[in-house]
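FOLDING PROBLEM:
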Amino acid sequence: MIVCPNCNHPNPDGAVQCEACYTPLPATNNCPSCGATVQADAAFCGQCGYNLRASAAAPPTAVAATVAPDVPLEVPALVTPDPLVELIQPDPLAVPNPVAVSPLPPTAVAVPPEITTPVAPPQVVEISAAPQPVVSGQGAPTPLPEPEPEPIAAPEPEPIAAPEPQPVAATPPPAVSPARTQLQQVTASLFHVQSDTNIELPQTLSVIHIGKPNDRIPPDVDVSGFPSSEIVSRIHADIRVEGDAHYIEDVGSSNGTYINNLPLLPGNRHRLRPGDRISLGKGDMVTFLFQLA
């Protein structure tokens, strides 16, 4: 019987996996002392306590070497085969006295390179001798042959001078308009409708505070001197400048901020465009018009 090491379920001998949990069962052997079934990796037999590892480590019994008897082997004598003789019959169509051609490739013979000695060309020596008059038997002088006229060398052509480049009038460079050194700055302002007062916004500030004097954030646009300013909070709204864009947002005022008669929720901001109507508080009592110049 084989006990499963996972769930301790007894399994019959020779089982490969557990019948209950299907776990692979360990291999088993028989004890060489009592013949009981033991696991292959067990050190001692559970029945008789026999040391299984000692029997496994025992050296195998030496086997005597088998000595073969000295029996002489009879080897038959080698018989030399008769040489094959091929009868060659004369071919009636063959050319008489053919030249035997060797089946081996011709051997290349190295030929020493021919050494040629340079021969100097023959020198021609011109000997100019004055012609002598030939006197005939009658005493009359024979006229001398006229010398051939020497060839007249043709005059070398004079090099033709390249035409001088004509001076080209320098074209004046195109007029370049002076680059602008500074960007044109846009001036923004708030026009107070109730008092016809124009308030120019500071150009050096990126955040412009609108409200009334207080101890926390002094206003950049003070509305305390305008009528009905009591509805405006001390910290009412901010105008943020980003490039050429102006944004307004309410910073938690008591009576709110309205853009074109629509409420501006705290935390949201609105991009101002020329002509937008900004009302600080309810009732459109403190009203400004956003302008660009």
User: Anything to note?
Assistant: DSSP finds one helix and 15 strands in the chain. The two ends are 105 Å apart (CA to CA). The first strand starts at residue 2 and ends at 3. The chain has a mean pLDDT of 73.
